[in-house]
Amino acid sequence: MIDRMRFHHVGVACRDLDSEAKVMLSLGYRAEGAAFTDPGQGIRGQFVRGPGPRMELLEQTLGSSVLEPWLAKGVKAYHFGYEVAALEAEVERLKSAGAILVTPPQPAVAFGGRRISFLMLKNMLLVELIEAAGGWSPSS
Predict the structure, then answer these.
(1) Residue 21: half-sphere exposure toward Cβ, Cα within 13 Å
(2) Which residues does 42 contact at the CB level (< 8 Å), separation at least 6?
(3) Which of 4, 79, 84, 87 is the most exposed place for a label (fewest CB within 10 A)?
(4) What is the domain partition of the chain in residue ranges?
């Protein structure tokens, strides 16, 4: 099972993306690529890399409340992202293991239009499945 997925990032909810990025800079994290806005998801984000795992810093866009459940409770790290070679198959596999589909597969700006899907596992861990870029397969 472990070879079906490749860890990609930890999603971090924040109220102010720029302020959060400055704090992460103090830990040695740097921007990875340009910041992005995804109107369909209601978020603005920035990937950062540093001495630990890659992180995706996310803030809500004007009028969006998609991150509010986590922000209101003070939760910062709220999802783990994994690249998968077969998105639909992995969604179905996790659903059959008791996960609840939160967001069906849809294109994501952060991944150049590759599709993503969010599922809540039975242990209340939110995971994002990311359609792998061409060339990656579980055996590579």
Answers:
(1) 18
(2) 60, 61, 63, 64, 65, 66
(3) 4
(4) 2-131
Instruction: Note the pTM of the prediction, 2 decimals.
Output: 0.90
- Neighbouring CB atoms inside 10 A of 38's CB total 18
Q: What is the pLDDT of residue 1?
A: 46
DSSP secondary structure code for residue 121 in this structure:
-
Level-2 CATH architecture, domain 2-131: Roll (3.10)
Q: Residue 89: its pLDDT value, please?
A: 95
Is the pLDDT assigned to residue 24 strictly greater than 70? yes
* Cβ neighbours around 13 below 10 Å, total: 24
Secondary structure (DSSP) of 91-116: HHHHHHTT-EEEEEEEE-GGGTT-EE
